[in-house]
Amino acid sequence: MERTNTERFMKNDTLLPLYNKDKPKSNPSNELPTAIPSHARRVYIETYGCQMNVSDSELMAGILTQNGHQTVPHLDDADVVLVNTCAIRENAETKVINRLVQLNHRKRRQPDLIIGVCGCMAQHLRDKLLDAAPYVDLVMGPDAYRDLPVALDSLARGVESHVSLTDRDPFVGLRLDKSEDYADIVPIRKEGIRAWLTIQRGCDKMCTFCIVPFVRGRERSLPLKFLVEDVEKLVDQGFKEVVLLGQTVNSYRDNGADFGDLLYAVGDVNGLERVRFTSPHPADATDSMIDAMASSPSVCKHLHLPLQSGSTEVLERMRRTYTAEAYRNLVSKLRERIPDIAITTDIIVGFCGETDAEFMETYQMMADIRYDSAFMFKYSEREGTLAHKVFPDDVPETVKGERLKQIIELQENISAAINRDTVGDTVAVLIEGESRRDADRYHGKTDGFKTAVFPKANTKIGDVVNVRVDTTTAHTLIGQTI
Ligand code: SAH
Ligand code: F3S
């Protein structure tokens, strides 16, 4: 008899975690009881969405390799493709659905190809995803990645016993687990200058527009001691900069330690040039965080501080827990304490019920604060959120589009003007790599996260060099090393 998707979820949701998380972390390579896979698979991981997803893909690569599988850099070499997905806006999900259609074409040529959908969209759409893409073999949410080796093994057995694709049950792992922090897993990162380090998973804030709490579960912080050890190891591996990641990084807590304590502790790690973090929540911007930013030399003076809306009424409907005035006061305080701080933000236009006047409050706030840069979005209704349940998505698409256009134009002008003001200044740049447009130049970031491009001269990747700014665009500083 045909099983419903719900039953399939129940069947696999009960799987137990593979590893003992209480094992000591001191020797990570020995921590995981290595389940020798009956089939070592070559896995290609494709990542969509935010940095947290990039970090999760590194974690998945860690879990797979420690269990005898191999990750490969090209889809052509793979017998498993894992698509790590984003659910934040509808277009993020549409992009993945289109990609799955392409992968299904490939599967017709390569019938043994296992297609897995992981991450936020897997958690969000659940059985709808399997209805829309019945050829998907594996659906796995962000707290279930320990089950990946078991999943690949059981799917491989299906392939081996020639069960036809249509008869094979997909493997589904969608439990959300407040205790899952993957603290014992060693992620596999690409070599480079900047490493992303997850310090917190989930979110407890429940902004009414946002799907994250539903797909990533409750907030949990990783132990400070482990994080400092991780950073020491990253420095040993040659990383110069670490970006601390979390949905509301600054609500970080470990026993008595708060986010400021973590910043100080990580900032003190020998050999680390720079520490950044993303994203803090305005309501959790404590003096402890501001003190650490002001006084720890390696903590970058850049704050990505999502505003969302400049209208207190809209912020209330969004349940952001701060007013427009409180946000303005916070920015004033930050600029007083840290005069050269770069501030960037996220904005949503066209949220439920947003009037012209409310939108203009956002526009005015952006004009007053003068952000260094901003990510700007049209509101996208997400099923399952409170906004979806209680507020109609009533701002017409054309109005959303028009409002977005207005703030993008405003922000481009502000970014260009702020950059123009740096002409003649000398800025410290951490070199990240060769410029894509010109092999004789390097690109890197300033402390304030602006891209700088300059001739290589006698410098190398990983150096921090002084660059005198000659010309600028809205997005780039162009100059010479001095
Ligand atoms: N706390 C996280 C937020 C992750 S989502 C962080 O700061 O990293 C990133 C941004 O996406 C949010 O700040 C918000 O501006 C935008 N966003 C979230 N849900 C959205 C939705 N339903 N429609 C449009 N934009 C959204
Ligand atoms: Fe989303 Fe608000 Fe948390 S934007 S990630 S619910 S802070």
Structure characterization notes:
With 482 residues, this protein is of the alpha/beta class. It folds into three domains: 17-173, Methylthiotransferase, N-terminal domain (Rossmann fold), CATH 3.40.50; 194-420, pyruvate-formate lyase- activating enzyme; 426-481, Nucleic acid-binding proteins (OB fold (Dihydrolipoamide Acetyltransferase, E2P), Beta Barrel), CATH 2.40.50.140. Helix content is 35%, strand content 21%. The protein has 15 helices and 21 strands. The strands form six sheets. A six-stranded parallel beta sheet has the order 2-1-3-4-5-6, with helices on both faces. The model is unreliable at 1-34 (pLDDT under 50).
Summarize the structure.
The protein has 482 residues and is an alpha/beta fold. The protein has helices spanning 5-13, 51-65, 90-109, 120-125, 127-132, 148-160, 212-216, 224-236, 259-267, 287-295, 312-318, 324-337, 356-369, 386-390, 397-420, and strands at residues 42-47, 70-71, 80-85, 114-119, 138-140, 171-173, 194-198, 200-201, 220-221, 241-245, 253-254, 257-258, 274-278, 302-304, 342-349, 373-378, 426-434, 441-446, 451-455, 464-472, 476-481.
